[in-house]
């Protein structure tokens, strides 16, 4: 009974977000932009939506995000201290999925923001580049997902 009430609730919730292009996966909703912006402007857009640039916490989440098959900003940066990668929620990077040879500050450029590339590997990139982005809105996990 309890489970069914929650399920109905999450279905209508899910439906509402799906209508607006959000996809649900294990406790979070995800949104990929249809336009391109700088990392900072992308982050602002996510914050305005009550979300954040996506924070990839696990292999499962990485696999889910790579299914978009698009080059897009994620919520990872080394803008504060070069070489020290931090997520936008302030947590340090532990599990990473860099494309081979990355991060590389390509040709000495100051690449401080991170994109997931269309085949899933991460790449550091100049933050002023304009690409798509992915927002994550974290919800409390449903009781049977804990
Ligand atoms: Ca996440
Ligand atoms: Ca850098
Ligand atoms: Ca790079």
Automatic annotation (TrEMBL):
Keyword Disulfide bond: yes
Every C-type lectin domain range: 25-136
MF GO annotations: carbohydrate binding
Keywords: Disulfide bond, Lectin
One Pfam family matching this protein: Lectin_C
Name of the protein in question: C-type lectin domain-containing protein
Listed InterPro entries: C-type_lectin-like, C-type_lectin-like/link_sf, C-type_lectin/snaclec_domain, C-type_lectin_CS, CD209-like_CTLD, CTDL_fold
Species this protein is from: Dicentrarchus labrax
Keyword Translocase: no
Annotated signal sequence range: none
Gene3D superfamilies found in the cross-reference section: Mannose-Binding Protein A, subunit A (3.10.100.10)
